[in-house]
Each structure stands twice: as C-alpha cells, then as structure tokens.
Recover the amino acids of this structure.
C-alpha cells in the first residue's frame, strides 16, 4: 500500500511550501528543496527523514504532530544530560521552542520561599540569590498545585517585580506549572512572553513537560548537591595545604577557577571541565609529603632541597592515582603542572607534545595566580605585567601559546 500521508517527525514544528505555512513557525528553519521546515532545535534535524518527508510536504500530505504528542520525545532527550547547567539550558531551550515563548525559568522550593535555578546566561549572578515569596505568581502556582496563565500582568499584584529589575528583563505575560518528582513537589517552571498570549493548549503542553522533567531534575539536583559537598571537602584540604606554604589560602581555589575558565575557552566538554577543576584544586596536594624544614625554609633552598620540593608533583600524582574515580587526565594535570613546553620544567623535563592539556592549562593558571597574588613577603604584580611575562615566556617556548592567548581573552573580557 502506498503511503500518502505521514505524521511529521517530532523535530518539525511546521513547514512552508510556496509561501504557505502549515503548523508553527519557530526561530530555527532548514530548507530542503522547495520546502522550508521549521524545527524545534537545529541539532535534532534528521537529513534522511527530511528527504522522505519533502515530497509529502510539497503535496500537502504531511501532518504536523500536535505539541502534546511532541513533548515526550523532547523530554526523553534530557536523559543524557550531564550536569545541572546543561540540563537547565536544554529544558529552557526546548520549552521555549515548544510553546513559542521568549524565555523560561525554573524555581525550586527552599524553606519559606522559591529560588531560581540559573544557567550561565544573562541573568546569572543576578537573580539566583533573590528569594521569591510564596504570595508571588510562582508561589501561587506552587501552592495551588496547578498550571496557571497570566496574560495581563498590568493589574496583577502577585507579579514579583524584583526579578525583572535584577535581570533587566520585562515580563509581559507568564504561564507556569508545578514540577513534581513522584510525590515530592519540588518547584515551578515558568515560560515568559508569548506575543499572542498563552493558550489552554500551551498550558497542556507545559503541564505535561513539567511532569516529565521532574524526576530528572530532582536526581540532577541531588547529584549536584553531593558533588558540591565533595568539592568543598577537597577545597578545604587544598586550602589547608596552601596555608602551610605561606600561599594565600585562596591559591588552590583561584587556580581551579582560572583553569576552568581557560578550559571553557578551549572548548572542553562539561565532563572535562569538572575533572580539570578538581585536578587544579589538588595540583599541589603532594606538598603534604614535603617536610616543614624544607617547605617553610626562609631564604634560598639548597640544590638538594629544591630537588626534594620537585617531588610534590610526583607525590600528588601518586595520591590521586589511588582514587577510584580520578581519571588519567587528572593525574597528569597534577604531575605536569611544573613542566614547561621547552623541556625546562620538572619533574621529568617533558616537552611540548609530551605534556597533557590539563598539565599545560594548570601551569599557566598556577603561575598567573602566584605572580598576581599578594603574599606575606611580596606585593602582587599587576595583571598586565603578569600577562606580559607569560606572553614572552610563551614566545620563548615555555608555555602553550594557545593557553596564554585564552588567558589574554579572559582578561580583556574582565573575567579575571
Ligand atoms: Fe606546584
């Protein structure tokens, strides 16, 4: 039997043939032959399926799925997410595309109020610390346990303006639904600003979406809480080691922050960034094995003493290598943070191609923080001066020029 009509794959929101639109227009489109397909997200597009449906679309025989039918497919994509930030990014991207809203946000219940879970976009750092009261719109949705639409905010007293102000955003209309993980009510998802206003159909889509993401969000939040706890424990150990060495107690924390920023500039994945952060926090953990008489010796070290100090890289790598979830990259980051690309570093005098990316990144972050930081015995040098030194050293083959350029970009952006 010949197939004469087909339901559209779930990534198609609508399509346009000869200027006529069927279904919905989204911000993303893919042109194929004479047909312009509107898709939820460009990364979902399946070229082979497009080839199959293009003829049906031209003959008007392609049936668009209704948004409710699409929601389970979209929600199912959230299962492979690694961390909270990427999960939130995806949730916000998908729900905005599904409903045609400008923005979305997620709030979780904490004590007697709600707080925003924020991605790393524009509102980051501005709204996550603002407690949203329970008599607000989000609070009402949470307490009444149902999806609500607010298409006219002008007379709505419950609209909490504190957030708009902090995020420099103007909310025109809102729809929100409570999020459940099994029997636990954990928060609220809101979508904001749909030009023509939110409809009952939109409400059904959001309600279903909120229901399907609840468990995943709950588990990710729990994992995040546990990972943060581990990170705090690791940081307190590193900070104790820093203090012993007359470093500022913030040294390990700083090296971790700078390394992570550098890693992001170099397009490392979320998983790699997390590993890099922990490796950077622990880069000097091997100093635990260096006696006070050498580590704290005032004045110049003898040749033998300096040789002893060099061992902190090997001791650190040894400590890390015994931990079950520590990767090879993390061990190498600790082992190689004093190696230099021209072979002049320690402990092994490795050269450029032999030093891991983690080792090269932590090396730059370590020197940058050590030189800019104020110590008991010295003032901190200016950022410009330290950058200049690092650039010259990179030119002379000591540091990876790619990493020093990334550092320069971060300084220009004011991230450091
Ligand atoms: Fe070190």
């Amino acid at each position: 039997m010949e197939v004469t009509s087909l339901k559209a794959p779930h990534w198609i929101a609508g399509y346009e043939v000869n200027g006529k639109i069927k279904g919905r227009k989204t911000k993303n489109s893919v042109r194929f032959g004479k047909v312009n397909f509107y898709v939820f997200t460009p990364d979902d597009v399946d070229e082979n399926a497009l080839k199959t449906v293009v003829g049906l679309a031209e003959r008007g025989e392609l049936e668009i799925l209704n948004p409710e039918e699409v929601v389970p497919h979209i929600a199912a994509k959230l299962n492979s997410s690694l961390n909270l930030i990427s999960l939130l990014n995806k949730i916000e991207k998908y729900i905005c595309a599904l409903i045609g809203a400008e923005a979305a946000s997620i709030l979780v219940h904490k004590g007697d109020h709600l707080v925003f879970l924020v991605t790393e976009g524009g509102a980051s750092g501005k709204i996550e610390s603002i407690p949203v009261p329970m008599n607000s719109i989000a609070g009402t949705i949470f307490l009444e346990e149902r999806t609500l639409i607010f298409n006219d905010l002008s007379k709505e007293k419950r609209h909490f303006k504190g957030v708009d102000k902090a995020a420099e955003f103007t909310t025109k209309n809102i729809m929100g639904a409570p999020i459940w993980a099994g029997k636990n009510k954990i928060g609220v998802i809101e979508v904001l600003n749909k030009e023509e206003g939110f409809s009952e159909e939109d409400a059904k889509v959001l309600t279903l979406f909120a229901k399907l993401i609840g468990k995943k969000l709950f588990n990710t939040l729990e994992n995040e809480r546990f990972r943060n706890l581990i990170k705090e424990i690791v940081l307190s150990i590193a900070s104790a080691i820093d203090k012993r060495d007359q470093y500022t107690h913030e040294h390990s924390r700083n090296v971790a922050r700078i390394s992570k920023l550098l890693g992001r500039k170099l397009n490392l994945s979320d998983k790699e960034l997390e590993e890099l952060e922990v490796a950077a926090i622990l880069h000097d953990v091997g100093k635990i094995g260096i006696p006070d008489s050498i580590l704290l010796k005032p004045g110049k070290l003898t040749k033998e003493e300096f040789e002893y100090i060099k061992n902190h890289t090997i001791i650190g790598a040894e400590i890390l290598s015994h931990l079950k979830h520590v990767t090879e990259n993390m061990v190498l980051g600790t082992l190689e943070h004093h190696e230099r690309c021209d072979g002049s570093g320690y402990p092994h005098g490795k050269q450029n191609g032999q030093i891991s990316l983690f080792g090269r990144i932590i090396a730059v972050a370590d020197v940058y923080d050590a030189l800019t930081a104020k110590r008991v015995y010295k003032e901190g040098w200016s950022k410009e001066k330290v950058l200049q030194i690092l650039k010259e050293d990179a030119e002379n083959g000591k540091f990876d020029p790619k990493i020093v350029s990334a550092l320069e970009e971060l300084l220009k952006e004011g991230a450091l």
